[in-house]
Automatic annotation (TrEMBL), chain A:
Gene3D superfamilies noted in UniProt: 3.40.50.2300
Protein name in UniProt: Response regulatory domain-containing protein
UniProt modified residues of type 4-aspartylphosphate: 72
Organism per entry: Nyssa sinensis
GO biological process, one term: phosphorelay signal transduction system
UniProt keyword annotations, A-Z: Phosphoprotein
Cited PROSITE patterns: RESPONSE_REGULATORY (PS50110)
Automatic annotation (TrEMBL), chain B:
Domain named HPt: residues: 39-141
Compartments reported by the entry: Cytoplasm, Cytosol; Nucleus
Alphabetized Pfam families for the sequence: Hpt
Native species: Nyssa sinensis
Keyword terms, alphabetized: Cytokinin signaling pathway, Cytoplasm, Nucleus, Phosphoprotein, Two-component regulatory system
Cellular component terms (Gene Ontology): cytosol; nucleus
Purpose of the protein: Functions as a two-component phosphorelay mediators between cytokinin sensor histidine kinases and response regulators (B-type ARRs). Plays an important role in propagating cytokinin signal transduction.
Protein name: Histidine-containing phosphotransfer protein
Length: 140, 152
């Protein structure tokens, strides 16, 4: 995993041996961003938020790097599937987990095909977060 | 001390009724579990965000449904967002209205959509009033020197 320092707009800067897990929460809903941040912070993880897929892509383009991206499916400006495809096209190999309030399997599968590592119904709960962070820790 | 015990009992009874009557579901309990010393006003903060965004969404929905040529895709997008945000705070009855609302969007049924919008507004403002009462009870308990009972 490449760590880059410098001109990034990310507040999750990885410097030297700092191994703290850093998560990007991408969601257009303010309440959901707040809830997911609080859930992750409880696990001692650093978080940053983006309001839509374009902001997430721009963060990576600016040199930011995250261990985990929690990507909402439906967002204005750039949706989750489009942002995920773009990130993978850019060579981003961070773990990207989709979240959606759409329960249908067909919609989740379509989102998965965009390049996700996993997909869950939102809002996430503590158990799901714990399981995701376990997977991130294995890769860390 | 009696006052605190009375207020706490009132709080427990009121909260229980909100779950029993379907205003709140387990997601609200999950929010309360995230509140702690480092985040003492977490639930109120998140609910306030929900209130602000919901009122904008309801206005957007009303505007969208008043158009000469209704864009049902746009209406559905707003309803989807409302459903998502109401789920995130455990506003069960609001979320359930959104489910029905989305079906009418898919059918491009204007009358159904307008009816659902009225229902969504009704359920939202009712729930808002109930939550504001709940938060007021919490403040009364704290002002009296007591602690707010944790619902499990």
């Amino acid at each position: 995993m490449a760590f880059r320092i410098g001109t990034s707009n990310s507040k999750c800067k990885k410097v030297g041996g700092n191994q703290k897990i850093c998560v990007l929460i991408v969601d257009d809903d303010r309440a959901t961003r707040r809830i997911h941040s609080a859930l992750l912070n409880k696990f001692g993880v650093e978080t940053q938020v983006a309001e839509n897929g374009k902001e997430a892509v721009d963060l990576y383009r600016s040199g930011a790097s995250f261990d985990l991206v929690i990507m909402d499916m439906e967002m204005p400006v750039m949706d989750g599937p489009t942002a995920t495809q773009e990130l993978r096209r850019m060579g981003v190999n961070s773990m990207i987990v989709g979240v959606t309030s759409r329960g249908q399997d067909s919609e989740k599968q379509a989102f998965m095909r965009a390049g996700l590592d996993d997909c869950h119904v939102k809002p996430l709960n503590s158990n799901t977060i714990a399981s995701l962070l376990q997977q991130v820790n294995k890769n860390h | 001390m009696d006052v605190i015990v009375q207020l706490q009992a009132q709080f427990v009874e009121y909260t229980t009724s909100l779950y029993r009557e379907g205003f709140l579901d387990d997601q609200f309990t999950q929010l309360q579990k995230l509140q702690d010393e480092s985040n003492p006003d977490f639930v109120v903060e998140v609910v306030r965000l929900f209130f602000e965004d919901s009122e904008k969404l309801l206005n957007n929905l009303a505007t969208a449904l008043q158009q000469q040529c209704v864009d049902y895709k746009q209406v559905d997008a707003h309803v989807h967002q409302f459903k998502g945000s109401s789920s995130s705070i455990g506003a069960q009855r609001v979320k359930n209205v959104c489910v029905a609302f989305r079906n009418y969007c898919e059918e491009k049924n204007l009358e159904g959509c307008l009816r659902c919008l009225q229902q969504a507004k009704h359920e939202y403002y009712l729930m808002k009033s109930k939550l504001e009462t709940l938060f007021r009870l919490e403040q009364e308990i704290l002002a009296a020197g007591g602690s707010v009972p944790m619902m499990t």
